[in-house]
Amino acid sequence: MSSRAAVLASIRRALGVTGDEATRRFEVETRLKQAPPGIVPKRGQGDVSGRVATFKAEAERAQASVVEIAGWEGAPAEIARYLREGNCPATLRMGDDPRLAAMPWRETSLDILHGASDGGDVNAVSAAFAGIAETGTLALVSGPDNPTTLNFLADNHIVVLPREAVEADYEGVFAKLRGTYGKGGAPRTLNFITGPSRSADIEQTLLLGAHGPRRLHILIVG
Amino acid sequence: MSVVATSARFKENAHEALTDARLQGALAFAGNFVARRAAAVARLPEFEALRDSARAIKDHTLAHLDLYLEAYERQVRASGGQVHYAQDADEARRIIIDLCKSMEAKSVTKGKSMIAEEIGLNEALEAAGIEPVETDLGEYIIQLRGEGPSHIIAPAIHLTAKDVEREFRKAHHGLPTDRSLAEPEQLLAEARQILRAKFLAADVGVTGANFLVAETGTSIIVTNEGNGDLTQILPEAHIVIASIEKIVPTLEDAAQLLRVLPRSATGQDASVYTTLSTGPRRPGDPDGPRAYHVVILDNGRSNMLGGEFQPMLRCIRCGACMNHCPVYQAVGGHAYGWVYPGPMGAVLTPSLIGVTEGGQLPNASTFCGRCEEVCPVRIPLPGMMRHWREREFERRLSPAPMRYGLGFWAFFAARPALYRLATDLAARAMRLAGRGRGRFSWLPFAGGWTRYRDLAAPEGATFQRQWRARSGPVR
């Protein structure tokens, strides 16, 4: 007997089932199909401006910095300001996201690099799939548009988040995922990110910048 | 079992821990968890309802575990990943070593995984000539020391910053002696620099999983450092090692559990990185692993289903039970002698390595009940420790004086009239004897108690006598 068969047989023996019970199969299929939401906290709910306000407050609690700007075309200038004031080098890595590509980068003196990071980048910018007001969390999906390495290897991670993409809760992001990837589908990597990297492993002292970005700067656009 | 257990020596381990001044100094920092959890819970009015929801999801999944495993497996395959089953630790190690060898791996980075600890993966990798690199800061520190974790979410909680500095100076050759490492910030920067190079050089990344989602074939890890992510996106292959009970049905179910996990663990509303991984790199992806494997471990867990210890399989490894445990706070995690410490370890260890080896641990409890009060999935931990004590007693594994003592007490307890008479006499005698100070600093047969504190002398009549006087006869 294969180990797969042995483990499943052992589970079925302990539960006193065969695996062929129609009612059990029906229950499992129904749950997978319907995906009931359970208890969803009220904290993130509200209209767009309410959700954005909650998102901002929660992200700042998690030590991210957040600015709101009127349109995508203003993002390069804001990013250049942020990097200049942080005494960071004037380089910026990004993926192929058309929303980022369409921005007027020539208006800044930033050197723009494209593609995945090999660990040598100080600054990177990504465009978010969604935001979650409930906990001030960003949702980023993998792919050529926004390579996952950019989320972790740069010291300063800058994320552009469209205002209308700020969902109330995780369930809102899952609904959006199913719209994009189909039911049962998912991107290769979905990163929920709440603030910059940190560790409290030494004497329970919270320190920012463990292995991932030391700083997380969010631009809410629109 | 691959990690050598000293759980049967719990009493000796605990004595050593209590007299270890360095350990006691480090454990003082562990108290922070309690206040942080309380603050996070106070911010979320739905928290108690979410605990009920989390418990119900786990119970439902365990009752249908065979079917959800099959559904999960189908979805992993559909996304291009592979699933391997391991009946025990030995088989899990073999699968991972074979995968690493087939990819000619020389270096393996690891995200923090209690299952990897349980199967002794590092030792097996080393024996196969492959370098395992722990990347969680706490795990990295204890790997340098050749130790196991002393806490399931804060593995190096038994160490001070000074201890960490000493290890770094010993292990990091080329570190200038005049470089200051006095501050935790400097230690973190040093580890970040050393490990960044290891991340980029690794051939395979091994992580655990907090949850496996049947709906999508997704594995989820929760970290604050980002080490688990660098472990899984940079190397050619990502291997996930997880036990059977990590399955949840849907993304929505995972979200319910993710709302109680970090709040119960570190007191955060959300951990910094919650990462959902589904299969290997896709066409057009500029990064990510080219191969994705999941090793699903049983190692005795399926035998816990359908019995009195099934609720233990609801555990989501937050560590709240040990953070709130007076015994854990006094002796730390290593005294428990195997992989899992604290109340959850006291219940799980005998299930996984047997009551002969682990049966001492359920005695490491004052039955104060705080672990059950804070458990996000409401596991009745004291009740289950009581089950284990009963089994230990039935199998005559408890020490003779304890068995005789219990037999002696049971003789009286089964004869109410005699019991009342005996306790009445004893209370009178002790009241007389303790008249002077109102407490005893020494009593026959109670040296274990009076060596550390006085025993108060009874005042007035026994409880039963007082009860009768106030409310009529005891029925």
Helix-strand category of chain A: alpha/beta
Biggest pleated-sheet summary of chain A? 4 strands, parallel
Tell me, briefly, the overall form of chain B.
Answer: globular
> What is the N-to-C order of secondary-structure elements of chain A (H for helix, E for strand)?
HHHEHEHEEEEHEEHEEEE
Most extensive chain contact?
A: A-B, 84 and 105 residues
Strand order of the biggest β-sheet of chain A: 1-12-7-4
Strand content of chain B: 5-15%
Averaged pLDDT of chain B, please? 93
What's the oligomerization state?
heterodimer
Task: Give a quick summary of the entry.
The complex is a heterodimer of chains A (222) and B (475). Chain A is an alpha/beta fold and 222 residues long.
Topology, element by element:
The complex is a heterodimer of chains A (222) and B (475).
Chain A: H1 3-15, H2 22-34, H3 48-61, E1 65-69, H4 75-85, E2 91-94, H5 98-101, E3 111-114, E4 123-127, E5 130-132, E6 137-141, H6 149-153, E7 156-162, E8 166-167, H7 170-181, E9 189-193, E10 198-199, E11 207-208, E12 215-221
Parallel strand pairs in A: 1-12, 2-3, 4-7, 5-8, 7-12
Antiparallel strand pairs in A: 5-6, 6-9, 10-11
Chain B: H1 10-18, H2 21-27, H3 32-42, H4 47-63, H5 65-78, E1 82-86, H6 89-102, E2 107-110, H7 114-119, H8 121-127, E3 131-134, H9 137-145, H10 161-171, H11 184-201, E4 204-207, E5 211-213, E6 218-223, H12 227-233, E7 237-243, E8 247-248, H13 251-265, E9 273-277, E10 291-297, H14 320-323, H15 326-331, H16 342-353, H17 355-358, H18 370-374, H19 381-394, H20 400-413, H21 416-433, E11 439-440, H22 447-450, E12 455-456, H23 463-471
Parallel strand pairs in B: 1-10, 2-3, 2-4, 4-7, 5-8, 7-10
Antiparallel strand pairs in B: 5-6, 6-9, 11-12
Helix pairs in contact in B: 4-13, 10-11, 16-19
Describe this structure as you would to a colleague.
The complex is a heterodimer of chains A (222) and B (475). Chain A is α/β, with parallel strands linked by helices and 222 residues long. In chain A, 32% of the residues lie in helices and 23% in strands. Chain A has seven helices and twelve strands. Chain A has helices spanning 3-15, 22-34, 48-61, 75-85, 98-101, 149-153, 170-181; strands at 65-69, 91-94, 111-114, 123-127, 130-132, 137-141, 156-162, 166-167, 189-193, 198-199, 207-208, 215-221. Chain A has a four-stranded parallel sheet, sandwiched between helices. In chain A, helix 5 links the parallel strand 2 (91-94) and strand 3. Chain B is an alpha/beta fold. Chain B is built from 23 helices and twelve strands. Chain B has helices at 10-18, 21-27, 32-42, 47-63, 65-78, 89-102, 114-119, 121-127, 137-145, 161-171, 184-201, 227-233, 251-265, 320-323, 326-331, 342-353, 355-358, 370-374, 381-394, 400-413, 416-433, 447-450, 463-471, and strands at residues 82-86, 107-110, 131-134, 204-207, 211-213, 218-223, 237-243, 247-248, 273-277, 291-297, 439-440, 455-456. In chain B, strand 5 (211-213) and strand 6 (218-223) form a beta hairpin. In chain B, helix 4 packs across helix 13 and helix 10 (161-171) crosses helix 11. Chain B is globular. The mean pLDDT of chain B is 93. Classes of the chains: A alpha/beta (222), B alpha/beta (475).
